[in-house]
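Input (Threonine/homoserine efflux transporter RhtA):
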Amino acid sequence: MFSKDYLLPTLALFGAMVLWASSFIAMKIAVSGFSPIAVVFGRMAIASFLFLVLWKNFRGLKVRRQDWKQLIFMALCEPCLYFVLEAYALKYTSATQAGMIVATLPVFVAIAAFFILKEKLALRVWIGFFLAAGGVAMLSWGATATENAPNPLLGNTLETLAMVAATGYMVTAKSLSNRYSPLFITALQAWVGAIFFLPLLAFTPGAIPTEFPHDATIAVLYLASVVTMVAYGLYNYGLSKVPAGQASGFTNLIPVFTMLMGFAFLGDRLSLIQFIACGLVLSGVILTQISPSKKAAATA
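Output:
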């Protein structure tokens, strides 16, 4: 039996992963009715308004002048570059394949920490990196064009670049998290994103929607409110109750949930080669996340 103190945070983290996985399905539906730029601007604009409602939480907050460059760079990486790349990626690849590529994010972060933060990496991390990279390559090259993935090679390449942008965000946010709350950082991302995407919406030909398809509109509202606000709240509640390493481990559930949702709601299908590729990706990610101390404890 799980104690209440453990069960509730676990359910919260589990729920956050389900919602974040569902964002790929919602984004796929949204870009079927609107341009990618319109989708990401709508998501950021609505989220910005929702965060303004919480303005009282930011009263008295002082931002150090020397931190502004890092804060702006962080927001440019994500949501700006990340959402542009991911939105266009989902025009060309399936939600299932995109979700699987997201599983490589911890690997990218580990490699970035090696080069930027000078953190030492064990041999298993390098092996895991090349396994995951090989899996992504196989996932892309082994794909054939379908209705849900008209150009999987292009789409998966864009999603991989989105992971590079997300890595820039995570490495920068790591140095800022000691001084600023997760709520403020998330709100700043939404506000900078809305400002960034507004001129892109205005000057990109065909980006401004002339019609508002029902399903696509609901998907944008869902992305802005449920995914951005509720998933964020659930994750941070769980994070406040369990160790950070344990909480981050839940992110490995995202590609699994995305695959199941893509199969159920979008009719996504994977070939045998792509299933093998998914296995390589997950094996590589798991290898990078194994704690040597835990292994030693288990054999002691």
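Residues 4-207+216-290 form one domain.
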